[in-house]
Amino acid sequence: MITIKNLTVKAEGRKILDSINLEIKDREKVVLFGPNGCGKSTLFRVIMGMNEYKVAKGDVLVNGKSILSRSIDERVKLGLGYVAQKSVSIKGVTLEGLIDQYDLDYDKIKNIIDTLDIDSFLHRDINYNLSGGETKRLELFTLSLMDGIYTYLLDELDSGVDLENIGRISNYLKSISKDRSLVITTHTGAILQALKMDTAYVMLEGKIVCTRDPIETWECIKSGGYDNCVNCEKRKK
């Protein structure tokens, strides 16, 4: 379980997260809505320990223990995994090479390869000259190679991804979701049509302004934009 308590974060002297309180339970499926620049990606990066941000106050806890002093590697060992909005291409490194390097049993990961439909990409350079959907599928596969990842932080998972790829991605996430927590940010809401989420939060200007049912929240945003989230009668109910 991840618990975020009164988290306030600054970058270059500017407050970019403001008193965030959030709890992600074991095996909970959470969607985080918000416009560009509201702080969603920053929140993920702070949870993972990216060092460009200064925590002014508050805390981030995993299973009741603070992780703010821990390195990224230590946080990964505690079960945190992250797929960024923009992926890095790695020339000269293939997934086949990673599988061989870590001496992984191909038969044991074949089901993941089939679900994500990435067999034809295994011999290619990682994330090089791929579409948005193909890249997201490879990122999820790479994350799946790491033992003990129980919380997936997935930033803009459906951004630039067509419906066919969303189907593949959601099928994979369904197959692992029984034993894992998922936290997904989205602009389009497309992933909600294929993957059932438990809880929605709306972030505006670095603050959580609403907690509500995911589908209801998305319909509210579509009908009146994020102003609806600020003025909604069901806000924080």
Q: Main sheet, how many strands, which sense, barrel? A: 6 strands, mixed
Shape: globular
Strand order of the largest sheet: 6-9-10-3-11-12
Binned strand content: 25-35%
Oligomer: single chain
The CATH topology turns out to be: Rossmann fold
* Secondary structural class: alpha/beta
How does this structure look, described?
With 237 residues, the chain is α/β, with parallel strands linked by helices. It has one domain: P-loop containing nucleotide triphosphate hydrolases (Rossmann fold), CATH 3.40.50. Helix content is 32%, strand content 29%. The longest helix is centred in the last third of the chain and has 14 residues. The two termini are 22 Å apart. The model has no long low-confidence stretch (mean pLDDT 87).
